[in-house]
Automatic annotation (TrEMBL):
Annotated TM spans: none
Domain Mur ligase C-terminal: 340-458
Entry GO MF terms: ATP binding; UDP-N-acetylmuramoyl-tripeptide-D-alanyl-D-alanine ligase activity; UDP-N-acetylmuramoylalanyl-D-glutamyl-2,6-diaminopimelate-D-alanyl-D-alanine ligase activity
Gene name tied to this protein: murF
Function: Involved in cell wall formation. Catalyzes the final step in the synthesis of UDP-N-acetylmuramoyl-pentapeptide, the precursor of murein.
Catalytic activity, EC: 6.3.2.10
Protein name: UDP-N-acetylmuramoyl-tripeptide--D-alanyl-D-alanine ligase
Sequence ranges assigned to domain Mur ligase central in this UniProt record: 111-299
Pathway the protein takes part in: Cell wall biogenesis; peptidoglycan biosynthesis
Gene Ontology, cellular component aspect: cytoplasm
A Pfam entry, by short name: Mur_ligase_C
Length: 479
């Protein structure tokens, strides 16, 4: 429930929104599509995915769901069960999302980009939450069901809403943007990602720019000004009569003038409308600094106080798997026997890989502890997926990054990463293995106290299993 204990959806409101039929009067306090995480009072939406959600309606009601959205009464569900019967479940969820957007007097921002969508969304959460009631998408709920679900969950008294919009293929962003109707739309960057579905970077840029089609009248487009395709993005925004705000090293509005990475901190210098601004991030990363500047542009466009926002953004930390840093103690009898893990195992493309390696190069290993007695910077890198026909060259090209010279060892995981392994200077080569379980099984041999270890790769490379293996080294030390 909201703080005023008002329901999120009543049966009457849901019927009007979806043109459905309620079997009785009911009221719900949330919306769920998963019985594993459902909360008492939620409206359970019986979506069809790997399995038909109708198979779980009885379980959802047993767990305390306030009602269920279905196309029919499933077997095993009581005659008097609280149901919302609709023609099709996904279109009904979309209708519920559109109704939630229409009834809330919220200022809405939609975020897309090849890299940094989720991190930027979380930055916006931290910045806006201090200035009004803020509703933000969970996890990476940015697809054809995640966006309407996020909208349907939005309380009526929301003041700021942050919606993440993603895509894998052409034609996906525009319908979600028009459903969201953002007051502000932000594109973090356009990079080589999902190239299997697009002919080139320009094709990706055209699809990302579709987010501007959903802008409300007098909406604002916040655009990374440093990209080769930035003129394309600006043209698309102009076609929607949007006010354009640029951010980046070449932007006149929000200009980045300096970045300094100091271990796990980023010191940012910028000019906003010609006035100097300085702020810190409690995480290292040039990409984080860029996105933070864009976040300040969004905050101003939404009517938030940018001075307060610049202070609050310093408390932001990356979401799990996207550059989070943690210490792992490798010896229960020695508090100094600590290894630092940079977990960036959720996603990867050449742009984000370069950013992560720069962070590792700036990290400070600790000497005088462990077997080696000299702290090392170690990268464990998994395949970058969905890069199209030039994927092998893109993997090999990572060896040319200047940051490689500051690393001690690079271990490579997967058939595509073989190209990087062969291109690395011999003194930087660690091991190459065909898949993540192979390196997870021997990771205890590859790291030591004092090391800083980056694990990064596309989700499909499953290098998250290496992260799990590294964490278990610490658990074993405590047992």
């Amino acid at each position: 429930m909201t703080q005023a204990q008002e329901p999120l959806w009543t049966s009457a409101d849901a019927v009007v929104a979806t043109d459905g039929h309620a079997t009785c009067e009911w009221a719900t306090s949330g919306v769920s599509i998963d019985t594993r995480t459902i909360q008492k009072g939620d409206l359970f939406v019986a979506l069809a995915d790997a399995r038909d959600g109708h198979e779980f309606v009885a379980q959802a009601l047993e767990k305390g769901a306030g009602a269920a959205m279905v196309t029919h009464r499933p077997e095993g569900v009581a005659d008097d069960a609280p149901l919302l019967i609709v023609d099709e479940v996904l279109p009904a969820l979309e209708a519920l999302g559109r109704a939630a957007r229409a009834r809330a007097n919220a200022r809405v921002v939609a975020v897309t980009g090849s890299v940094g969508k989720t991190s930027t969304k979380e930055m916006l959460r931290d910045v806006l939450a201090g200035q009004g009631r803020t509703h933000v998408a969970e996890a990476s709920y940015n697809n054809h069901w995640g966006v309407p679900l996020t909208l349907a969950r939005m309380p009526q008294d929301t003041e700021f809403a942050v919606i993440e919009i993603g895509m894998n293929h052409a034609g996906e962003i525009a319908p979600l943007a028009m459903m969201t109707r953002p007051d502000v739309a932000m594109i973090t960057t356009v990079a080589a990602a999902h190239l299997e579905a697009f002919e080139n970077i320009e094709g990706i840029a055209r699809e990302k720019a579709e987010i501007f089609r959903g802008l409300e009248p007098h909406g604002v487009a916040v655009i990374n000004a440093d990209l080769e395709v930035s003129p394309m993005l600006r043209a698309a925004a102009q076609a929607q009569n949007a006010r354009i705000v640029g951010f980046g090293t070449t932007a006149p509005d929000y200009r980045l003038t300096g970045i300094k990475l100091i271990d796990d901190t980023t010191v940012v210098s910028a000019q906003i409308s010609g006035a100097p601004v300085h702020f810190k991030l409690d995480s290292a990363g040039r990409h984080f600094a860029m996105n933070a500047l864009g976040v300040l542009a969004v905050a101003e466009a939404l009517g938030a106080d940018t001075a307060i926002a610049a202070t609050d953004i310093g408390r932001w930390r990356p979401p799990a798997g996207r550059g989070t840093r943690e210490e792992i103690c490798l010896d229960r009898d020695d508090d100094d026997a600590v290894m630092e893990l940079i977990d960036d195992a959720f996603n990867a493309n050449p742009t984000s890989m370069a950013a992560a390696l720069e962070v590792l190069a700036a990290a400070r290993p600790k000497d005088g502890v462990g077997r080696v007695h000299r702290g090392r910077r170690i990268a464990i890198l998994g395949d970058m997926l969905e890069l199209g026909p030039d994927e092998i060259a893109m993997h090999a090209g990572l060896a040319g990054l200047s940051f490689i010279a500051d690393l001690d060892l690079v271990h490579c995981v997967g058939p595509r990463m073989r190209a990087l392994y062969e291109a690395l200077p011999e003194e930087r080569r660690g091991k190459w293995v065909d898949d993540a379980p192979q390196i997870a099984a021997i990771v205890y041999q590859l790291v030591d106290a004092g090391d800083v270890v980056l694990v990064k790769g596309s989700k499909g490379s499953k290098v998250s299993t290496v992260v799990d293996a590294l964490r278990k080294l610490g658990q074993a030390a405590r047992n």
